[in-house]
Amino acid sequence: MRGQVWAQAAVDRADFVADVEFRASGQDRSNGNLQVWLTRGGPPQGGVSSVYTVAQFDGLVLSIDQYGGHGGKIRGFLNDGTISFKDHHSVDSLAFGQCDYPYRNRGIPSKLRITQTGTSFAVEVDDKTCFSTDKVHIPAGYKFGVSAASAENPDSFEIFKFTVSTADGVTQPPPPNPPAVQQQQQDQSQQPVRGYSQDQHQQAAAAAGSQPAISKEQFDEMNVRVQAVNQRVDEIFKLLQELRTRHEQTHTELMSLNKNGPIHDHVGAVESKVGKIENIVTAIQKDLEGKDYRDHLAKLQSALRDTHSGLQDSLSDVVTRHAPKMWTFVFLVIVVQALMFGGYLVYKRRRDSAPKKYL
Prior knowledge:
The chain is an alpha+beta fold and 359 residues long. Among the domains are: 2-166, Jelly Rolls (Sandwich), CATH 2.60.120; 225-295. 38% of the residues lie in helices and 24% in strands. It has five helices and twelve strands. Strands 6-5-4-3-10-1-12 form a seven-stranded antiparallel beta sheet, with no helix packed on it. The N and C termini lie far apart (141 Å).
């Protein structure tokens, strides 16, 4: 997500004081960056997603991001229109001034002041000097702008105040056109940087006296945005309710597991048993690695060979010894035939001696 707001009128004096009040908020792992530009001709060509993706520009940019992992940093960069930051091998080395500043989730707006006089250029944050130098001087005729960009987990940037006055405290008069700044969307699906709220805009218009009242189209657009914010807040509330329900269920399950005693006691018993098993496995492994089983295998192979050869010899002896003899078989055949012949003779004699019957 990215957005930008630029002034229509240029700064007509070289001595000026620019006051910016902003606030950045988001989740713990969210990320984003905010840039304050003072360039010739307004927005640079190619867009201003961040200081690392901008091409050539002529002027100054203050980058507020989480560079270095220290919670936040404010850095100043200069360009005369000859250096393409997106093609430079080390953009960080181009900074002429910097300071650490944790700007995220502070709860209150941060106050940034840019002051240029005839002999110095200084940047202050929350009434403390961030950096200053006497070697930077931005000529008149340059325009101020603000841009912001966020990553996949977006930060929310709000701009509450942006005023430019002379070094003696006189506020620069507004341009002849009614709107003082214009907001350019980089993508229809991306959120712009937040501007003034309705009350603050009305108070500023009443104080200036020359600002027109808010139009119906602007009010309708603001109403749509407020409804979208309310819908997002409702979704976040529902998500928190679901997380609370899951947390309560997990807590209930843990308490049910803890009925028969503290959970750490059960965990300790399991760890003790696992330790014993590991010791046994280690002892078995050492025993297997320390012994040589080649002799045992050779003896077993020899025993099997002897058993196999003895089994063949004994089996042939048993078959030979218990096989029936040939003469016994022949004798049995002769005896059976003699018995059959004798029986036949007895039968024939009885038939011949039996009385015959004639018809």
